[in-house]
Amino acid sequence: MRVRRSFLPLLAFLALAPTGLADDRPVVLTHARLVVGDGSPPVDGATIVVAGGRIAAVLSDGAAIPDGAEVRDLRGKTVTPGFISDHSHVGLVRGTSIDAANYTRETIEAELRRYREYGVTTVTALGVNGPILEAARSDAHAGRLGGADLCGVDRGVGVPGGAPPQAVVNVGPDQIIRPRDADEARAAIDSMADRKTDLVKLWLDSMGGAVPAMSPEVFRAAIARSHERGLRVAVHIHDLADAKAAVAAGADILAHGVRDLPVDDEFIDALKSKGVWYVATLALDDASFAWADRAAWTRSPFARAALSSELASQVDDPAWRAKVLADPRLAASRSSLAMNLRNLKALVDAGAKVGFGTDSGATPLRVAGIAEHRELWLSVEAGLTPLQAIALATSRAASALGLEDRGRIAPGLRADFAIFDSDPTVDIANTATIRETWVLGKPYPRSLP
Ligand SMILES: [Zn+2]
User: Fold this and answer.
1) Which string of b and e fits 296-334 if b means at least 16 CB within 10 Å?
2) Residue-wise pLDDT tens digits, 36-71
3) Ligand 1 mean position to 170 CA, how many Å?
4) Using one digit for the tens of pLDDT, what is the confidence trace for 384-398?
5) 49 alpha carbon – ligand 1 mean position (Å)
6) Interval between CA 89 and ligand 1 midpoint (Å)
């Protein structure tokens, strides 16, 4: 990217900058190593000017500093855009429980603050949301909650007696719609559109044949009506055949990676020609066994800080671990992750549109905040460079959601970014050195160990 030396655009911007956030005095971050988020290499010695909740300018060091600005020297530190999850959930989990009673403002706000602690500045709650989502979302948009910003699918469209299985998600009747036919599917979309959902979510999967799949009649009607109402559709899939069916029916986002078979040319060509986004959610299957395995990362203070005391006791309990490790379904989770890693690399190499998400918050073990770091680390394990992984989690994730006001560090965009002691583009594990997260121009220092 071009680093501006001229000061004129900055002055023009400051004149237009929105006011209302606590302190409108510009803040100037100097001597930063800047990771723009678009995949371009880091720029050393950048000066970032923040005003009115936005990035006012990105200058090279030595440029004139606006009068009255607060100056912070970031020598030795690296700045990246805040991470964006295209697939998470809020309000479902408390401690080790997953229950409709958890869906409260208190739970949601605590989760949004936790995401922010871990440098995640935008979270998409991809379905199973109750009526309080709307108010929480508008407060989050305005930066009133001290946490990550929140986008969301309203209820989402599931299958009667099928996905998402009530036994797993245990949500209230006002958190999911399960249409029986095309007419009910269209009515479901209309009700979600009327409540101003950001996008639509459909569950297409039969969970390996364990539950009834969504009928083609229902998913085609739901996708067609969503598009008529100007809404994009994210689809839950697991297998390649379902992924192909979703893409053929007009899905805009595949909300999970393909985990049964290697992606083939037919699928890659369909994704690319239709411009469909793909969100791998590597951390999902990983979470099924990593805590029970006591994988090294799960024992780090950085990961442990994301656990409630109840969840920490559970993962430390040898009896719980033995039970999880004896579950015959665990082998499927491990092979699903291996296939997901392989397919992510193939799709990135092929130039498909790949976003970023984890399915964090859907179950107690998919831990908000740490899951997003794990997704970054696993993306690099899949063969991506750290710079590519960070681009997925920032600019690409923003594009997948159609959010043009974030995802890069560039003039005019939201001042949502993270500051690291060590450069995560050198070693992706350095995301754990996060020092501070900024949301809408407001800094939140690390309180993690
Ligand atoms: Zn999900």
Assistant:
1) ebbeeebbbbbbbeebbebbeeeeebeebeeeeebebbe
2) 999 999 999 999 999 999 999 998 877 788 888 999
3) 13
4) 999 999 999 999 999
5) 36
6) 6
Q: How far is CA 126 from the centre of its chain?
A: 10
Q: How far away, in angstroms, is 160 Cα from ligand 1 center?
A: 17
Q: Domains of the chain (ranges plus CATH)?
A: 8-81+408-445 (2.30.40.10), 83-401 (3.20.20.140)
Helix axes 370-381, 330-349, angle to 10 degrees: 70
Count Cα neighbours of 240 within 13 Å in the Cβ-side half-sphere: 14
Across 101-132, b (16+ Cβ under 10 Å) vs e yields ebbeeebbbbbbbbbbbbbbbbbbbbbbbbee
In angstroms, the CA 123 to CA 158 distance is: 21
**Backbone φ/ψ region at 278: left (φ over 0), alpha (ψ -120 to 50), beta:** beta
Distance CA 290, CA 268 (A): 30
| Two tokens, residue 272 | 């690319």
pLDDT class of 23 with cuts at 50, 70, 90? low
% of the chain exceeding 70 in pLDDT: 95
**Rounded to the nearest whole angstrom, what is the distance from the C-alpha of residue 86 to the centroid of ligand 1?**
10
Single-letter residue type at 347: L
> What separation in Å is there between the alpha carbon of 360 and the centre of ligand 1?
8
Reported pTM: 0.94
Please give the distance, rounded to the nearest whole angstrom, from the Cα atom of residue 53 to the centre of ligand 1: 30
Rounded to the nearest angstrom, the distance between the alpha carbon of 295 and the centre of ligand 1 is: 23
Token pair 């429980």 in the structure block, residue: 97
For residue 346, how far is its CA from the centre of ligand 1 (angstroms)? 23
Q: How far is the CA of 300 from the centre of ligand 1 (A)?
A: 26
CA of 34 to the centre of ligand 1 (A): 32
Band of residue 8 on the pLDDT scale cut at 50, 70, 90: very low
For ligand 1, the distance from its centroid to the CA atom of residue 375, given in whole angstroms, is 14
Residues 131-147 pLDDT 10s = 999 999 999 999 999 99
pLDDT (tens digit per residue) in 193-215: 999 999 999 999 898 889 999 99
Instruction: Grade residue 3 by pLDDT with cuts at 50, 70 and 90.
Output: very low
**Gap from CA of 362 to ligand 1 centroid (Å):** 6
HSE-CB for 302 with a 13 A CA cutoff: 18
3-state secondary structure of 20: coil
Cis (ω within 30 of 0) for the bond into 216? no
Distance 82 CA to ligand 1 centre (A): 21
